[in-house]
């Protein structure tokens, strides 16, 4: 069995959870089957990468919609190169169209993993302009015709069925993400926190994520005023979707002296050390199909406070590995296709602050939640199991 994995991200060019997923999935699949990776960007040294693709030069420019057209040009280049594979597996809308075209060209099954859904991210129009209609077209075309769709959580499975009623539910399969517990493990060293002037003697509340509406960073910043006055708020936040959201975040931080903003994408060992020294990790997302970063924190024995959205309740056990916080009574539009912006109830900042403060005040509770979190990671979320389930799905589609 030869499988072609199509992805925008692959190391070293990784900025989100989908890229992490493909990195580890491809590594573990390669132990089981013949697998190749086709990705965006510059040439890679990995033996798994068959080719990397650049967008058409003719589509250069700064107009927002051109970004979507550039991504589609990569899809057109990728599709014919899949020839010879028995099955094609695309990740995110960036390559769903390429997977669909390869399916038509070579009469092979197309599997698509959904890491997010465009109808549930309407704020992307702020970033892509008219290109949002194109990204939605690529996703819809690929998913509705796919032979199988892998949802990274049961919450995502429900979202796929709701957003794309043309997809029969028998074609949607839940396979959770995984994590490498040897990479994310408690790190007692202090060189990284010293590098970023994080005070080891003060309690710290940590956020790790991109600066995008989806991650709910503004709600955490609104909660900062309700946090214990002795706590420092550490934001590992970079890669803003737009200049506007970056400026909005910058303006909010300017009035919060307790905030330490690390405005760069950090190496994973550095993130693991920061998480290991955190008193509490916070994930205030308004939309999160899985929420891999919560697993990373739990693997480092850090208690989690997270919004109860998407796949997060399948990771964080409320009252055992952390606390789950509802978005609020006015947040129903956040998960409804066509809503204008991610919504959250007006009391969300206070609702986030309450369990954070409870954990800050109770060291024994933090310790218990942290130990339970790592134990849950080790028991339920391994990349080898993810790869085995994925390969088994491939085999069923191929009749092997």
Question: What does it look like?
Answer:
The protein is of the alpha/beta class. The chain has 2 domains: 2-178 and 382-398, Rossmann fold, CATH 3.40.50.2000; 191-380, Rossmann fold. Helices cover 40% and strands 16% of the residues. It has helices at 17-29, 65-81, 93-106, 125-128, 131-145, 154-163, 191-195, 217-223, 243-254, 268-276, 292-299, 348-360, 363-380, 383-398, and strands at 2-7, 34-40, 49-53, 87-91, 110-114, 148-151, 172-174, 204-210, 232-238, 259-262, 280-283, 304-307, 322-325. Strands 3-2-1-4-5-6-7 form a 7-stranded parallel sheet, with helices on both faces. Strands 10-9-8-11-12-13 form a 6-stranded parallel sheet, with helices on both faces. Helix 2 (65-81) packs parallel to helix 5, helix 8 (217-223) packs across helix 12 (348-360) and helix 11 (292-299) packs across helix 13 (363-380). It starts with a strand and ends with a helix. The model is unreliable at 330-341 (pLDDT under 50).
Question: How much β-strand is present in the residues?
Answer: 15-25%
Number of domains: 2
Q: What's the average pLDDT?
A: 93
Number of strands: 13
Second CATH tier, the architecture of the largest domain: 3-Layer(aba) Sandwich
Q: What is the name of the CATH superfamily of the largest domain?
A: Glycogen Phosphorylase B
SSE string, helices as H and strands as E: EHEEHEHEHHEHEHEHEHEHEHEEHHH
């Amino acid at each position: 069995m030869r499988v072609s994995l199509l992805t925008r991200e692959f190391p070293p060019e990784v900025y989100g959870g989908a890229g992490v997923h493909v990195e580890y999935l491809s590594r573990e699949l390669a132990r089981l089957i013949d697998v190749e990776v086709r990705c965006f960007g510059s040439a890679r040294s990995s033996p798994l990468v068959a080719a990397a693709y650049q967008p058409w030069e003719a589509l250069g420019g700064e107009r927002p919609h051109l970004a979507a057209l550039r991504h589609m040009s990569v899809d057109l280049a990728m599709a014919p190169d899949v020839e010879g594979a028995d099955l094609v597996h695309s990740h995110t809308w960036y390559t769903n169209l390429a997977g669909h075209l390869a399916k038509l060209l070579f009469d092979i099954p197309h599997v698509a993993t959904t890491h997010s859904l465009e109808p549930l991210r309407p704020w992307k129009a702020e970033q892509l302009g008219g290109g949002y209609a194109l990204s939605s077209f690529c996703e819809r075309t690929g998913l509705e015709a796919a032979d199988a769709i892998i949802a990274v959580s049961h919450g995502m499975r429900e979202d796929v069925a709701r957003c794309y009623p043309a997809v029969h539910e028998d074609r949607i399969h839940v396979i959770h993400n995984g994590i490498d517990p040897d990479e994310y493990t408690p790190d007692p060293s202090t060189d990284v926190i010293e590098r970023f002037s994080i005070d080891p003697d003060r309690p710290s509340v940590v956020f790790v994520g991109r600066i995008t509406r989806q991650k709910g960073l503004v709600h955490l910043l609104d909660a900062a005023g309700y946090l214990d006055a002795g706590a420092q708020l550490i934001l590992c936040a970079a890669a803003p979707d737009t200049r506007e959201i970056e400026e909005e975040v910058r303006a909010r931080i300017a009035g919060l002296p307790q905030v330490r903003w690390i405005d760069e994408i950090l190496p994973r060992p550095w993130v693991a050390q920061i998480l290991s020294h955190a008193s509490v990790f916070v994930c205030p997302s308004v939309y999160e199909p899985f929420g891999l970063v919560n697993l990373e924190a739990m693997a480092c024995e850090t208690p989690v406070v997270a919004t109860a959205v998407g796949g997060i309740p399948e990771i964080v056990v409320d009252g055992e590995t952390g606390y789950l916080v509802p978005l609020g009574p006015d947040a129903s539009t956040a998960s409804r296709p066509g809503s204008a912006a991610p919504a959250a109830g007006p009391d969300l900042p206070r609702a986030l602050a309450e369990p954070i403060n409870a954990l800050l005040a109770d060291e024994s509770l933090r310790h218990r939640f942290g130990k339970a979190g790592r134990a849950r990671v080790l028991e339920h979320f391994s990349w080898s199991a993810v790869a085995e389930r994925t390969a088994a799905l491939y085999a069923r589609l191929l009749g092997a």
